[in-house]
Amino acid sequence: MQQIISIFHQVGSLLYPWLSEISTAIIACFLVAFGTDINRFLRHQLQGRSFILRTVAFVMVNAFGYGMLIVTVSPVLANNMAKLSAPWLLWTVILSFLFIGSWAQKNRQV
Questions:
Q1: Percentage of the chain surpassing pLDDT 90?
Q2: Mean pLDDT of 12-35
């Protein structure tokens, strides 16, 4: 058992230099998986509005909103992940991607 924990610690330690990229990937995958739902909600809220308003809202949300979300939330996620011990970091990264992937598969996003 101690050998398995040691392996988790070693592999988890390899992730620390890449936390910025890992957190960006987690946020981007989250947005890809949930983007359809967000856009559907936005489309429903803007139903019956003018073409110009719908187009501007779409561009603002997709171009600026998602981009700003990635840029602002990724460093926060990376800083919080850096506080985890190496084995917990490894499990957090694995489970985060598995959760997003399984949710996307269940909702026919994949």
A1: 53
A2: 93
